[in-house]
Specification:
heterodimer, A: mainly alpha, MetI-like fold, 13 helices, about 70% helix, disordered C terminus, B: 8 helices, globular
Chain lengths: ~300, ~375
């Protein structure tokens, strides 16, 4: 009996602890979500309200305003002065730029990692250290050189420019992650395929890549988040044509009265693509992250 | 079907100018005849797996030539050598079903779907794995994984099977079962087999001939019994047999006596050895544990003390303390001696082995 009671206590303790952890991490997200469906008056109310319908009447005005670009007269009489109509364009830019740079970084990084993992390359460890070392510098240090370089090469405010930049930033991470995964994939798989009558390229395509997909998915999620969130370079390099969401979010804070509700609505919309992406690859993600723990 | 010939094959890892270069295989000459089951046997690092991988085309020979049948295969990629390889860890493709694993080599040949299916079914029924064809390999018990790996090797009906310690990952009872089955399978198919192992029991029980290697050098190629009874080098003598052959470093006195270098050992030699020992003085004397008896009469040439007794049921192994050296003795199960007892040791003078102490070659 005591044993049963003990295990029950442990079970309750576990769920209570889990609840606290989930609350701690999820509350900011919840607060943003709740704020996004509040009226302007409600959002700046000194007494915070947490539960829609019970404590306040929810509204979708913030969403229609950021998505449709309509300027709504707010109930305090203060007009939002930031240009909301460009949010959709910015969001599309973010999707194109983060998506392309992630795909590029994962493909190029995977190929490089395979080569480093499988073939003897002269100065291999130096090369790998050099690749890693490009991440040791805070990016802000190269801000001005990059700005000048991009100005001279006409890469400012263009898709290719910023995609190239984000791909470069993510490549070292992808190469290191994927090299680790490839080192875990026994070389016998390719050897078996080559003995079975396939070329090395066929062996990679039919055997190695299917094995590496979980790892590629995990790596892609992290790369996508980096590109999706990047602020400093996006803010400096791309003012109009290829501008992304993060600088825009900042700009609507800074102009006139802070539009908390619309900021929250835009943030929720901004988070959704990453959530969907992570959700789609969640099964791979777990396998990718625990890859090294699997016994041969 | 085909024979396999290695002519003066060497493999060096690392660059020749640097000190870290390792000669994994040195000047290896080896003929595997058509339909033969040949085992490459040796301790880890002896070059046996490297040799196998060179035949498969997974490693390039630094020098020498390799023939499969009439073709020199040095420049052929593995897929064009018409061989099948079974890996120690099986290397079954985890994302493919057992069926797709087995049919994988056939699909490289653009075989028709119905033909592929017929071949897979043929192999699966022979190996009794029809019931797992739709399963993924990594959840299967190791015995079934082993069969799938064999199936993938058999399905393309290759000229030569190459196997790299395929039974190492099985537990003891399954291993002895698979030994018999593999031997049977090879006889049935008649396919030339080159099989690498460090396990002398596998080598002795399955092979037509054994090639013993050490430190990259081929020591001896012979039938299992010939290897056991007439080892050509000290290494072969001590590597084969359980317990290992008893050895004592000796000096030949007058061509008639062996004198232990620390004077603890003295043995009269059979007259047949006298001529052979004319030019050799420093030797290693060897005798297998079954060629020594424990006796309590004057047929004993030596005396020792029982140090450890290992009863195995069908026989008992005594580890005798002979003063400066030890000697293992196999006795019938009913012959009992106590630990610490002084016993006479009788060596069968016709069954002793002598090796040159410098070269290690049999005298």
């Amino acid at each position: 009996m005591t044993q049963q009671r003990e295990s029950l206590t442990r079970l309750i303790g576990f769920w209570v602890l889990l609840g606290i952890v989930i609350f701690f991490f999820m509350f900011p997200l919840y607060w943003i979500a709740v704020s996004s469906i509040k009226t302007r008056a409600e959002v700046i109310n000194r007494v915070p309200s947490y539960i829609p319908y019970a404590q306040f009447e929810p509204t979708l005005d913030n969403y229609t305003s950021v998505l449709l670009g309509t300027t709504i007269q707010s109930d305090t009489g203060v007009r939002a002065s930031a240009d909301l109509s460009i949010f959709r364009d910015r969001l599309m830019n973010s999707v194109i730029i983060a998506g392309s740079s992630t795909i590029l970084a994962v493909i190029l990084g995977t190929l490089a990692a395979y080569a480093v993992s499988r073939f003897h390359i002269r100065g291999e460890s130096d090369l790998m250290f050099f690749i890693l070392s490009t991440r040791m510098l805070p990016p802000i240090v190269v801000l001005i050189p990059i700005f000048l370089l991009f100005s001279n090469l006409n890469l400012r405010d263009s898709y290719p420019g910023i995609i190239l930049l984000y791909t470069t930033v993510n490549l070292p991470f992808v190469v290191w992650m994927m090299k680790g995964f490839f080192d875990e994939i026994p070389v016998e798989y390719e050897e078996a395929a080559m003995i079975d009558g396939y070329s090395r390229l066929e062996a990679i395509w039919k055997i190695v890549i299917p094995e590496a997909i979980p790892a590629m998915a995990a790596t892609a999620v992290f790369s996508a988040i980096v590109a999706w969130n990047e602020f400093v370079f996006a803010n400096l390099l791309n003012r109009t044509y290829a501008a992304t969401v993060p600088p825009w979010l900042n700009s609507i804070i800074g102009v006139g009265a802070v539009e908390w509700g619309r900021l929250a609505a835009a943030s929720v919309i901004f988070v959704i693509p990453i959530v969907i992406f992570t959700f789609l690859v969640r099964n791979y993600l777990l396998r990718g992250v625990t890859f090294g723990a699997v016994r041969r | 079907m085909a024979d396999v010939r290695l002519i003066n094959v060497s493999k060096r890892f690392g660059e020749s100018k640097k000190n870290d270069a390792v000669m994994a295989v040195k000047d290896l000459d080896l003929d595997v005849t058509d339909g033969e089951f040949l085992v490459l046997l040796g301790p880890s690092g002896c070059g046996k797996t490297t040799t196998l991988r060179m035949v498969a085309g997974l490693e390039r020979a630094t020098s020498g030539e390799i023939f499969i049948g009439d073709r020199s295969v040095n420049d052929l990629p593995p897929g064009d050598r018409d061989i099948a390889f079974v890996f120690q860890f099986y290397a079954l493709y985890p994302h493919l079903s057992v069926y797709d694993n087995i049919s994988f080599p056939l699909r490289a040949q653009n075989m028709s779907k119905s033909e592929v299916d017929a071949q897979v079914q043929r192999v699966a029924s022979r190996l009794k794995i029809e019931h797992i064809l739709n399963r993924r390999p990594n959840r299967l018990p190791s015995g079934e994984q082993q069969r799938v790996a064999l199936g993938r090797a058999m399905v393309r009906q290759p000229q030569v099977f190459l196997m790299d310690e395929p039974l190492t990952n099985l537990d003891a009872s399954l291993r002895s079962e698979m030994r018999v089955e593999l031997k049977h399978l090879q006889q049935e198919l008649g396919t030339t087999m080159l099989y690498v192992t460090h396990d002398q029991v596998e080598a002795m029980s399955m092979s037509h001939r054994i090639a013993v290697m050490n430190l990259g050098v081929l020591q001896q190629v012979d039938t299992p019994l010939e290897i056991y009874n007439h080892p050509k080098t000290l290494f072969v003598a001590t590597f084969i047999g359980s317990p290992p052959m008893n050895t004592v470093a000796c000096t030949v006195v007058d061509g008639h006596y062996l004198q232990g270098i620390d004077n603890s050992f003295r043995l009269a030699l059979d007259s047949s050895y006298t001529a052979r020992l004319a030019n050799v003085k420093e030797v290693v004397f060897g005798v297998r544990s079954e060629d020594v008896r424990l006796v309590n009469d004057d047929s004993a040439q030596l005396r020792g003390t029982v140090a450890v007794r290992e009863p195995l049921g069908d026989e008992t192994i005594y580890d005798m303390d002979m003063g400066q050296y030890r000697m293992a003795v196999k006795t019938p199960p009913r012959q009992m001696f106590r630990q610490g007892e002084q016993v006479g040791v009788a060596i069968n003078p016709k069954r002793i082995h002598l090796f040159d102490r410098v070269t290690g070659q049999a005298v």
